[in-house]
Amino acid sequence: MARDPAHRLDALLIGAAPAVAIRAVVELGIPDRLAEGPQRVEALAAAHDLDPDALRRLLRALAAQGIFAVEGDLWRNTPMSALLRPGAAGSRAAAARYGAHPALLQAWLGLPETLRTGRPAFEAAHGAPFFDWLEAHPDAAFTDYMTERTAAVADAVVGALDLAGVTALLDVGGGAGALLQAILAANPGVRGAVLDRRAAVAACPVEAIAGDFFAPLPAGFDAALLKEILHDWGDADAARILARCRAALPAGGRLFLVEALADDPRAAWMDLVMMVVFGGRERSRAALEALLVEAGFALEGTQPLAGGLCLLTATAIDHPGGAPRRA
Ligand SMILES: C[S@@+](CC[C@H](N)C(=O)[O-])C[C@H]1O[C@@H](n2cnc3c(N)ncnc32)[C@H](O)[C@@H]1O
Question: How far is CA 168 from CA 92, 114, 134, 255, 298, in A?
């Protein structure tokens, strides 16, 4: 990174252009095509019915960032552009499709409005909360993006989860189910299911329950996992989700949270995404513990994972006054 302040600013002030350019080549499938071997820009352009000069200029701009390279007149993948192939190990293809989706970009333009109101600009721009909007916009690739993102920490989560004494684990908002699949493979005595929106679990490789985590959760589980769920929501909604978990678990049942901790500087940009897109936030350990206690859980421990995420393990406690707080 350039060190002087003006150059660092210049690198940031290029704005959304790199993300939009990367999304364009992913949508066209150019990294996949170049995986078959180096190609001339004319052949790439002809395959996609594109203007060769415009495509060459796009590839040159990306090559300046290390995405694609050219030798003579043959373009080829680089380690960075190879990561833009869907399904590649460590792929960021869905991240590119989601992050620079026009609806997301439009939401970011509403940041000044969010600063005035504290409300997510996404909702103001599109007239619906993100997850309602997503129902009609699968091209936003959000579930694929989460699957990619979660793959990067799956081994760390599997290694850190202590499922001793657990017989059945519900992955609440578990998306397409890849993480639970990995957890169950490492813990063969444990039964597991994912509960998520119908579209998210459509191709789930493990038991899937299409449902709503603001409604009563299915019985029969003695542990629940919430990975990057609470940060999507404001405090009142996060408390409702935790109350649903508590109501579904027996006393002594376990709750596992995987979240970034707001105190970690690496969480700052994701916190901003949560504010603008979802109306949620990253939280400190103390803020998460307060939510857990309010819902009827005792926080037992916190373990750092890869990539700035943390595993928080909690136990469902008996409420002195009887039933836990109503959802
Ligand atoms: C940030 S993603 C986390 C996905 C997964 N836990 C992971 O980390 O890969 C949030 C998940 O919550 C799900 N979700 C949102 N609203 C929901 C609701 N009301 N009921 C059930 N799932 C919901 C989304 O479909 C999405 O899969």
Answer: 32, 41, 30, 12, 20
* 171/284 same-domain check: yes
The pair phi, psi for residue 63, each rounded to 5°, is -65, -30
Q: Which of 194, 232, 237 to mutate to test the pocket of ligand 1 (most atoms within 8 A of CB)?
A: 232
**Using a 6 Å cutoff on CB, does residue 196 contact ligand 1?**
yes
Global model pTM greater than 0.70? yes
Q: What residue numbers bound the domain in which 256 lies?
A: 142-316
Q: Are 312 and 302 in contact (CB under 8 A)?
A: yes
Q: In this structure, is residue 327 part of a structural domain?
A: no
Instruction: Tell me, yes or no, whether 202 lies in a domain.
Output: yes
Find out whether the beta carbon of 229 lies less than 6 Å from any atom of ligand 1: yes
* Tens-binned pLDDT, residue by residue, of the chain (327 aa): 557 999 999 888 888 999 999 999 999 999 999 999 999 999 999 999 999 999 999 999 999 999 999 999 999 999 999 999 999 999 999 999 999 999 999 999 999 999 999 999 999 999 999 999 999 999 999 999 999 999 999 999 999 999 999 999 999 999 999 999 999 999 999 999 999 999 999 999 999 999 999 999 999 999 999 999 999 999 999 999 999 999 999 999 999 999 999 989 999 999 999 999 999 999 999 999 999 999 999 999 999 998 889 999 999 998 644 455 545
**What is the CA(229)–ligand 1 centre distance, in A?**
6
Give me the number of domains the chain comprises. 3
Q: Taking Cα atoms as reference points, which of 128, 126, 83 lies closest to residue 101? A: 126
Which protein residue's CA is at the shortest distance from atom 24 of ligand 1? 173
Task: Evaluate: CB of 131 within 6 angstroms of ligand 1.
Answer: yes
For residue 272, count CB atoms less than 10 angstroms from its CB and return exposed for 0-12, middle for 13-18, buried for 19 or more.
Answer: middle
Task: Indicate if 126 belongs to the active site.
Answer: no
Residue 161 sits in the same domain as residue 299: yes
Q: What amino acid occupies position 11?
A: A
